[in-house]
Amino acid sequence: MSKLVSSLTEAIQKCGLKDHMTISFHHHLRNGDYVLNKVLDAISELGIKDLTVNASSIFDIHEPILKHIKSGVVTGLEVDYMGQTVGEAISHGALAKPVVFRTHGGRPAAIESGRTPIDVAFVAASQSDEMGNCTGKYGKSACGALGYAMSDARCAAKTVVVTDDLEPYPLQGFSIPETDVDYVVAIDAIGNPAGIVSGTTKITRDPVGLKMADMAIQVIQASGLLKDGFSFQTGAGGASLAAAVFLKDLMLEKKIKGSFVMGGITGYLVDLLESGCFRNIMDVQCFDMKAVESLAHDPRHMEVSASHYASPTAKSSIADQLDVVILGATQVDTNFNVNVHTNSRGIIMGGSGGHTDIAAGAKLSMIVAPLSRARMSLVVDRVQTISTPGSTVDVVLTQRGIAVNPRREDLQVQLKKAGLPVVSIETLKKTAEEINGIPEPLALGSRIVAEVEGRDGKLLDHIYEVL
Amino acid sequence: MKITQRALAGTVESSDCMVMLLPAEELSIEIDSIVKQQYGHVIEKLVRDMLKKFDVTAGLVKIQDQGALDCVIEARVETALRRAGKEAKA
Q: Is the pLDDT of residue A399 over 80?
């Protein structure tokens, strides 16, 4: 018995995919992913219509999905993150049904509970055997961890592994086991390695970014959380990575031995492991080749599922074990709500990803962002879109001052005692307006183009059509 | 003054603006800005005030704004005007 089929078309047919069903994808191949587009092309040729695509993220490379939306092949879209290319079309009303945004933890929770069932899951794997034991750690299109694909593979009615490196059974170091897999397809290339490890994985050289990174480390120090057993997560933005580098220096100097870093893993975080600052890395997704290499060869660097990472309904998850998280924001409001979904024109250009999950889980969640970008103030009265509720955000750090959520008076006292420039969130807003001027409110249409779910699956906010 | 030759100042980097001046029979202003909804009216008033200050009576003024602050827009417009015509005063 073999699960190997000759083409994507054959796999789709054998899975019994029909109109109105739901298919799923994961985004570890990032902006180098060929699989989503190839699968949709094959489905389109078969004449199947009215499908819902549940993808952990949509990147710019997935622009051809717009063609399949136009032709009625795809009529529903559920994601954790959406890049601006597709986001702009959605914001202009390309899809009749509102897009559903979830968090990286909320998505597997919804899949596992049966709230968002998947008919066919497509798993892009850089190596697989013909029974479907597969991984992203090795092969020419290696992308590292496959954390976001694991719940899909386990819970979907049918699971198809798509690979470009078929190895003899049994595959050593598999991430997803054959027990979850129905069919295996070998194609020429699952992705473009240059795009797989794309993105914002370089440390900033911007003096404002470096200043904020330095301030962030001082906040961590002042919080009293930085001691043996410390756990940490940071985003892949330039200032966040700089903070990771500064953290390494401080931990080495103070001889602090941390427990683990979680992420979205970059080479900078691998450095923290290799220099002895942390005992382990917990990895749901790799951002660069150094992270992929480390995951493939260092047993201290562990691959975890999205559910293990951040599911609010799992029996426990890593998100709840975190001490400190550093996060970005496009907007923050005076209630500490954070927007990472929409830009200054109200156009979709992102999504929560794990932002909302780890803000809720960590002992100290800190937003680090410049007070204004291109004349748009970071701090406003009400964010355009609530991605992460203010009740889970402790600190908003800008180059012009640090605001502490009033519900964290303890932390406010600690930071003031350390001599840090603590100000009210209203002061930050006023300071930004003195520089930028007071903006006219953004006028948007009345049609809802997306719904944002919180990590608990409850509706958090709507995103409206852009005029 | 009249804009007698094509002139350019600024860049299309974030937080900057590019000002292009072209000779024309009448005075007209075209503003494209990533923050047009929020600051379009402020930018237009600023540019009109600058043109008044330099006595510009004819020419096409094109602004491509990437979220520049007022002081940046002023500096870019003034530079472009001084490049566009030797008669510039003020």
A: yes
Contact A344 B41 (CB under 8 A): no
What is the residue-averaged pLDDT of chain A? 96
Q: Which of A157, A155, A144, A105 is nearest to A353 (CA)?
A: A105
- Rounded CA-CA distance A307/A316 in Å is 9
Examine residue B2 and state whether it is found in any structural domain, yes or no.
no
Q: Chain A residue closest to B12 (CA)?
A: A374
pLDDT score of A236: 78
**Nearest by CB: B39 against A373, A437, A443:** A437
pLDDT at A389 over 50: yes
Q: Is the Cβ pair B15, A345 closer than 8 Å?
A: no
Name every chain B residue with its beta carbon within 8 A of the beta carbon of A374: 14-15, 34-35, 66-67
Domain count, chain B: 1
Indicate which of A349, A375, A440 best probes the interface with B, i.e. most B CBs within 10 Å of its own CB: A375
Domains annotated for chain A, with CATH where assigned, are: 4-56+104-196 (3.40.1080.10), 207-441 (3.40.1080.10)
Write out the E strands in A331-443: 331-333, 338-339, 364-368, 372-373, 376-377, 379-380, 395-398, 401-404, 422-423
pLDDT at residue A433 in the model: 97
The residue of chain B nearest to residue A440, with distances taken between CA atoms, is B38
Closest approach of chain B CAs to the CA of A438, in angstroms? 8
pLDDT at B88: 46
In a domain, B73, yes or no: yes
- Give CA separation, A226 vs A30, A229, A273, A357, A398, in Å: 33, 8, 16, 21, 21
Tell me if B22 is assigned to some domain. Answer: yes
Which percentage of chain A shows pLDDT scores above 70?
A: 99
Residue B25 falls inside a structural domain? yes
